[in-house]
Amino acid sequence: MNKRMKEAIAVIGEGITEYYFFNSIKDEYRQLNLKPSYPKHSSSLKDLEKEINKAIDMEYSQIFCVIDMDNKKEGKERQTYENLKRRLQGKHTVKRTGYQYEIHFIETERCTELFFLFYFAYTSKCYGNQTELLNELNKHCPYGKSEKFFRGHALHQYFQQNGGNFMQALRNAAKSMKEKEEASRDYTYSQMAELFEALGIKAE
User: Fold this and answer.
1) Segments in the chain below pLDDT 70
2) Where are the beta strands (DSSP E) in 1-56?
């Protein structure tokens, strides 16, 4: 990979779900100069930061961190996440080289599978845990949260082949954020529409 890949975009998920999803998106939207990745050893925030630093070393101009909020709602994990976000989010310049980059944190509660559900339907239901959300998604489309499943299905295309709609997912994600702000809601929302708009893909 060219070390000075200007205007390239890195999308970093906390785990393999986001990695496989963004690879499938890249297959359809080939104009995206996109590199999906995820921490290879664990899903800890410390390892996420290491992956962010790798993207900085490669001089990506935009770095998006796709975050599941279901384990960051309270306690030490939330404090650690908020500190990381406060420290890294925004625009930065490396004085020595003049290299400029921007880091974005893209949050979904409970997890990225909410955006997958938005391919099929809108909901503002408060899910007690991730399993409840996965059960809801499976009512619309058979889905398994495992690398074996991901390897066998290009996720974006798979959802559309099973009756889902990507543009509907973007609209539903945007709606969830509007409702979150209007109602001060801290559950069942996704910023994924903001990520794709930054990539040049808006809901039709």
Assistant:
1) 1-7, 42-43
2) 9-13, 34-37
